[in-house]
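Quick note —
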Amino acid sequence: MRLVFLYFALLCGNAAVSADETVRPDVGKLLNKAQELHGVKEYAKALGQIAEVDKIGALNPLERFYTERMRAMVLISTDDQAGAAKTLEAALTSERGSDADRLVIFENLVLTHYRAKAYEKSAAWAQRYLAQGGTNAGIADVQIQALYLAKQYLSAAALLDKQVAATIEAKRAPTDVQLRMLASAHQQSKDDANYLKTAKVIARYYPKPEIWKELIYRVLARNDFPEALEPDSNRLLRATKSPIKTAELLEQAQLTLATGYAGEAFDILSAVDRNDSTIPASELTRLDQMLAKVTRMRQEDEAALSSLDARMEAAKEPNLLVNAALSLSFLGHHAQALAMLDKALAKPGLRQPEMAKLRKAYVLARADQRAEALALLDSITGASPEAELAGLWRLFLQSSN
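Predicted structure written out below.
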C-alpha cells in the first residue's frame, strides 16, 4: 500500500483566505522549522515545534489547518496512524484548504485508518474520497480490502464484482488476488451460487489443479448425477491434472475397463509414476497385474479393428456406436471415431444424447480439434449434470490455450 505524504510549502503572508485571515509569522516560523526537522527525520523535535504552536493558542482556521497537516505528517512518519488520523480529521474540520488539498487528506485518512486497523472508518473515508471525484485507483482497492477486513462481506463482494466485471469487459484478466478475495467474500456471505460463479472465473484465468478438483467434485456431488457419467468426470479430473491418488487411478482404470475401454485403462495405468516412493508396494503389485491384463485386452481390440465397421453397421443400437467410437479414439483412430459418433447422433433412439455429445467433444479435443469441440460443448445447454460438466470442459479448453 502506497503511503501518501502531505508535503506542502508554507508561504506566510500569502496564504490568506480573507483579508483578516493569514498565517502569522511566529506560527509560520515554527511550522517551517517543524517541516525542516521532519525532512531530516528529527521527529521528536518536529513535534516539539508543533507543541510550541499549540501554546500560542487562539489559532485561526487557516493556522489550524496547516498545524494539523504538519502534525499528521510527522505522526505518519512515526507510525502513529491513529494519532495521524485524528489530526487529519481536525484539519478537515477547519474547512480550509483547496479541493485538491482536501482530497489528499481524504486519501491519507483512508490509509491511516487502514494501518490503524480501523477498517470501517477506512472504508467510509474511501467512499467519501471517491464521491468527491478522487481518481487514485488504489483507494478503491483499499476500500474493498477494508470492507472485507471489517467483515462487511456483502459490500466488499458487490464492489469487487463490479471491478472484476469491468476488467473482463475491457478484455483484461482480473488479478488472482481480486478473484480469491471475491470468492472468499461470497463464501463468508454463504452465497454459494456466486462463489461457484467466481470459482469458474478463477479456473478460466488462473487454472490450478485444486480449483478444478473442487469444481468437478461439486458436479459429482449432485443428487441427480448419473453413474454412467462418472468416467467422463474422471477424464476431466485427469485432463486438468487434479490431485488423484494412485489407488483412485486404479479404480478409474477398473471402471473404464468395465465399460469396455481397454485403451483408456492402458493410458491411465501407463501414466502412473512407478518411481513415486509414496505408492505402497501392494498398489504397485496391483498396478502391474492390471497393466498386464489391459495390455492384452488392448492388443485384442486392435486386432479386431478390421471387422469393427462391419459389426457396427449391423448394430441397431446407436449407443453401441458411441462406445465403439470411444474405443477407437483411445486406440488413436480419431477420424474413424468421429465418423462413428456422427452416425450415432444421427440415429433415432439414442439414449442420453447429451452424454454422447459430451463424449464427441472429448474425442474432438483428443484429435486437436479444439474449435469444433468448443462449438459442440456450447450446444449442450440447460442445468443437467451433463451440461454442467460440458461447461467445465469448455472452461478447461479455453484456459489451456
